[in-house]
Amino acid sequence: FDSKEFLDKKVAQFLIPSDKVAHVQIGNYLDHALLVLTKTGYSAIPVLDSSYKLHGLISMTMIMDAILGLERIEFERLEKMRVEEVMNKDIPRLLLHDHVTKGLELVVNHPFVCVENEDGYFEGIFTRREVLKRLHKQVRR
Amino acid sequence: FDSKEFLDKKVAQFLIPSDKVAHVQIGNYLDHALLVLTKTGYSAIPVLDSSYKLHGLISMTMIMDAILGLERIEFERLEKMRVEEVMNKDIPRLLLHDHVTKGLELVVNHPFVCVENEDGYFEGIFTRREVLKRLHKQVRR
Ligand SMILES: Nc1ncnc2c1ncn2[C@@H]1O[C@@H]2COP(=O)(O)O[C@H]3[C@@H](O)[C@H](n4cnc5c(N)ncnc54)O[C@@H]3COP(=O)(O)O[C@H]2[C@H]1O
Ligand SMILES: Nc1ncnc2c1ncn2[C@@H]1O[C@@H]2COP(=O)(O)O[C@H]3[C@@H](O)[C@H](n4cnc5c(N)ncnc54)O[C@@H]3COP(=O)(O)O[C@H]2[C@H]1O
Q1: pLDDT attached to residue A140
Q2: With 60 as the cut, is the pLDDT of residue A38 above it?
Q3: Residue B72's pLDDT is what?
Q4: Which of A4, A5, B26, B71 could covalently link to B84 via disulfide, CB atoms 3.0 to 4.6 Å apart?
Q5: Is the pLDDT of residue A107 over 90?
Q6: Residues of A in contact with B75 (CB under 8 A)
Q7: pLDDT of B66-90, one tens digit each?
Q8: What are the DSSP calls for B5-65, one per residue?
């Protein structure tokens, strides 16, 4: 098992590029976000603005939690609340030239980490699956 | 980086035991399952029966997909449909004495894998986080 081959790499070599990443816009309403999550099948996705700047993440759980009233789930609120009121803005970020070890540390607690360039523009995502796929491949030899 | 220390282990040493795992029962209705998922914050959890036998997994996405009508999300159907109509029954399973390498292969494509005993009774779960935590710890030395 040659960990050097695995660990000397950069985040860029594990990247799922932005054009392959499902996302929503900060101005979208929650009913639209819920539809995107349901149709793509992802449990959480990035939130961008129209110039592709990264703003946060939104998940199924955050949406449901936001409309959970005292007596019932208040589904009508989905058309009234926006993504930016509910999303998680406090998210870790990686740069393309970061060492993969920095990504590994972050995916211990995050299923995926957004990758951006120096100006905060979204480049893609770094996922647990990409790390585990390569680890498994090396372990098999 | 001593992979032998990591890879000679059994699934049992990485286990999150059943008493720590949120789950629902096969007979529950979808509104109850949605509430459990929202309150615990997990995107998918095991489905058991009253004798703790493992039947499948249910996720937020599976529930939303099941009530997605042609014109709108039909939230009233949550009280009419049951977990067993919607859950994924076709899931991989691990045994306590399996090698961790078998678990590693499965978590490439599954965020977690249910662990059972020989009679199909639920023992706990094997998660990506437990694997990555230990990998990261070894990489740091
Ligand atoms: N359509 C699909 N095709 C193939 N496999 C699928 C899939 N949807 C889910 N999976 C599998 O399930 C894992 C968890 O997905 P989840 O949506 O909860 O969590 C995902 C999701 O929140 C996000 N993600 C992954 N790929 C994405 C994409 N293309 N666009 C937006 N978000 C993505 O990163 C998290 C971790 O992804 P990761 O790949 O490590 O792990 C994925 C992958 O192994
Ligand atoms: N309450 C919490 N406290 C601390 N961290 C939390 C958390 N909820 C979520 N996370 C973090 O988010 C990851 C993805 O959670 P998710 O619910 O999508 O996906 C979870 C969930 O579907 C299931 N899972 C994990 N622990 C569970 C438990 N105690 N009961 C039921 N299901 C569990 O296994 C999947 C992978 O879990 P993993 O630990 O690898 O990865 C978790 C963990 O790193």
Answers
A1: 76
A2: yes
A3: 84
A4: B26
A5: yes
A6: 73, 75
A7: 999 888 889 999 999 999 999 999 9
A8: HHHT-BGGGG-EEGGG---EETT-BHHHHHHHHHHH--SEEEEE-TT-BEEEEEEHHHHHH
DSSP code of residue B88: B
User: What's the pLDDT score for residue A104?
Assistant: 96
Distance CA B41, CA B141 (A): 33
Given pLDDT bands bounded at 50, 70 and 90, which one contains residue B3?
low
Residue B32 CB-density burial (10 A; 0-12 exposed, 13-18 middle, 19+ buried): middle
- Tokens coding A75: 């589904």
Question: Which chain B positions have a beta carbon within 8 Å of A135's beta carbon?
Answer: 104, 135
Q: How far is the CA of B119 from the centre of ligand 1 (A)?
A: 32
- The residue behind tokens 């209705």 is B29
Q: Cβ A73–B73 below 8 Å, yes or no? A: no
Q: Say if CB B97 and CB B12 are below 8 A apart.
A: yes
